[in-house]
Amino acid sequence: MFLIENIRNWYGRFERPISSLSLIFGFVFDALTLKRVDTPWENIWILGHILIVGFFIMIIHIQESEPGDEKNPQKRHFWYVNILQFFFGGLLSTYLVFYFRSADISATWPFIGLLLFAFIANESMKRHYTRFIFQVSLFFLSIYSFAIFLVPVLLHKIGDVVFILSGLVSLVFIAIFVKLVFKFSHEKFTESKTSVLFLIIGIFTVINILYFTNLIPPIPLSLKDAGVFHSIQKNNEGNYDITYENQNFRDYFRLYPTYHEVPGSPVYVWSAIFSPTGLNTNIIHEWQKYDEIKKKWTTDATIILPVIGGRDGGFRTYSKRSILSSGKWRVNVKSETGQNIGHVRFEVMIGDNLPVLKMDSR
Fold first, then answer.
1. pTM to 2 decimals?
2. Count of CB atoms situated within 10 Å of the CB of 230
3. Is residue 166 over pLDDT 90?
């Protein structure tokens, strides 16, 4: 008991730095270990976190506590709040990893920013863990973020209807949870009902606005590989032999790497799209040229390509165009609903001499 008491007091003294380090470690751990959104173990891992978070929100508010208990390691309330914070951090770091992998940050930064804010708030606003409204808001965001990619994985479909269904599932779960808390807390938080309802509707509305303005990553789809090549041919092993320009160190830091086009030769844009097992869909390669006079992008071609789900490295596909004019080009890789999965950018320079090429197999 003496050892346990010393450990408890030591943790109470250094709780803040320990909490911060565990949050960082947890994020790195998730980034290295979480691989696919459709594996049963990883979804059970997330579901387990959600159940634990829900349980401790109920325990914290059903049991009576005195002011200052959340800062006193001698009290159970202190440990309840710390366990809740830890598992909230695990949930939000998991979502950051999954959504960041699926995101074109230039287009979907508002939603990634929302998750990042929740991730930071989980650590920096610990005193608010005694406030039911703050907890329920984070809890609903966690449930909704989970449903957005779990429902498509289960139904093997994506699209507007599936996204709306994800929202309805989330609303049902949070409604049941809030009703249970109110029931077992003997109407202790009756005055909070209006505020809780307002925040849940607000979060639901914001996420739907972000989705229908294409500002949410197209999870569970993600771009595993992409590039612009001089030739692509399928070999006998089922892989693709590609040829590309030999670039120097500085070329890797250019927003628009140079592509030396040879007249009469096509330009290939390659993409490997991860899709969960059983989720077969289409993607779009939107070829655009930057108009230097009008200062805007104009669409040159839109090519629809099939994607078959299940391959770890992503389903490999490509589109090609001939006779591209010199200047800045980009190929937007999009889902069928118009969400940006990624971009391939390059600047075309036309010449008679073939540049130095390298060959690889993918």
1. 0.83
2. 21
3. yes
